[in-house]
Every structure is written in C-alpha cells, then in structure tokens.
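Case study 2.
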Amino acid sequence: MSVIPLSSESLHSIAMYRLRTRCRYIPGYRSILKKLFSSPSIKSSIFDIDFDNPVGLAAGMDKKGENIPNWEYLGFGWIEIGGITLHEQDGNAKPRMFRSNKHKALINRMGFNNPGSVKTAERLKIQKSKKWANIPVGVNLGKSKITPNESAEDDYSGTLERLWKYCDLFVINVSSPNTPNLRELQENSQLDKILKSCNAVNLEMSIQENSKPKPILVKVSPDLSDEQIMAVADTALANNCAGIVATNTTTSRPSEDKIMKENGGLSGDPLQQRSTEVIHLLFDHTNGNLPIIGVGGISDVESAWEKIGAGASLLQLYSALIFEGPSVAKTINKGLISKLKEHGYDNLTDAVGHSHK
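Prediction:
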C-alpha cells in the first residue's frame, strides 16, 4: 500500500496545531522550549518599541494568530501575524504551497487565506484575556480580493481599526504577488490614499484609547525597479510611515526546475541577494532616516549580518525556520553577539548600515 505524502500546506497546519496544543495542554512544555531555543538578549528600540532581540517571525507563518504566546519560546524577539484582510476569504485553489529543498526555498500562492478582520479580532481578544506574548506583535494587513483597488484604502483601514487594540505595529502589504492587481497599489497615488486613510484611523483610535498611534510600515516588492522602490520610500516618508519592510516574495526564479515553474511568490535563499540590494538602496535613498526591516533569505548569522550592514534595524525570517529548524533564531542571535564584539560595536543600533560607512 503506497503512502501519499502530505502537502507543504498540510505539514504547516500540523506543525501549527502541535505547537499550539502542546504549549496549552502539556505542563512545562513552554519551559522546555525556552530552555532549548531561547535567544540571548540583543536589545534595541525601534519605533519607540523595545525589542529584546532583532529576529522576528515573518508574516505567513502564523496567519491566524493562533500561536501568538508561543513564538518567544523559539527565540524570536517579535512576530508578525497575518496577512489579515477586512473580509474572510478562502484564498486560492490548492495546492498552493511548494517546497524546494534544493534551493532552500518556498513558493506560495496562498492568496491571503484568512478568517477576516472580525473573526481575527475575536480570536485576539480571547487570547489577550488569557495569555499574550511578552514580545512585540505586528499585524500584516492585506486587501480583500472582492474589494476593488479603487476602494482599497477602506479595506486596509477597516482591518486596522478592528485589530488596533491587539498589536504593537501594522504592516501594509501592497506587494504580495498572489492577489490580482494588488501590486498596482504600490503606485504613488494609490499608496498615498491607503496610508492617509490608515493614518486617520490610527490617530482616531489612539485618541479613543488614550494611547499613542501605532507604527505603520509598508512592505515592498523586490520585483519593482529601483526607481519604483525609491518612489515607494518617498510616499512612505511623506505620510510619516514608521518604516519599510524589505522585501516581500519574488516572482523571479533561480532555475527552471519543476517546482520553480509553479506560480506564486518565492522566499528563501534565492531572494537573499535582491532583498539585500533593496535594503542598501532604501538606506541610501533615505539617508538612514526610515527604519528598515530586512527579510528575504536570512538563514544564518552571515546573511543576518549582511542585512544589518545594508541598513536593516530589524530582521524577519520564515523559510529558514522550515529548513534550519527551531533553533535558527537562537543561533542567529548568538552569532550576532559575536559579530558585534568582533567589529567593536556596543549595540545593534550602532551596527546598522555599517557597510555604508
């Protein structure tokens, strides 16, 4: 009797379920994870938020926000859940997630499958009343497929409003390749409308909750031209954005292998070089005045240090957790401490953009 192998998406769902249930129901399980995988402290303050270490979990791994209290026990200094859209949606047809061990890369065309802003807000409210993360939590905001681009600002700001109480920062995702025409929203006038609408809601919520506005960042595509990327940065600066996430997944491919012929966004090792180039470009263009979150091909201390040298103040990974295992954040942070000592830096902030000096 032949055994049909599980799909990448099924394996992902199983891993998420096991982490959630074991942490919840097995006494001492979180303590075991902490002992095995917790990271050393590399403190920094970005967006007026304190981070115990710079290595964050990128959006897409915990799409529903079902493991928010648990990622810190795997050594992460912060997390980003989602993407979440205003309306609940199933996403694209399956199969829609693919793995290339040869390239240490993932391809996905998920299409923002998520429970929507209402159900997500309910889930986060319940979680926050029981157990919440001791690390910063960001939310990746996408656009619902049923919402036309002409009304995109209402979709993004509507989700922001519903989830405002439950997170520390927001990432405006206008760069996923898996929602038709979404990347058109990176164009200046469209992005400007989205950011203005989100800023207005952000201010309104801060007044309502007697708190400071939350940082809002923009996630940029690696497939834009350098000129387009600089234009996105200019629009972000004009709208007082807190920073830029560089980069999202790419539609380019390192080869013509069978898996590489699948449509969707590619993450992992093949994205490393272009992501770093974009960080360099953004740091130069903004004179280091717009904080950058570096993501794309980070799998070890060398690739992490390269991103910091290019101008990244914080880091994110996803594929490396799959290919390198649960100790990857701890290993990177331990390596970063050695790098800081080796190069004579007192703290992480001093090392940001060191390759430009």
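Residues 188-208 form the longest helix (21 residues).
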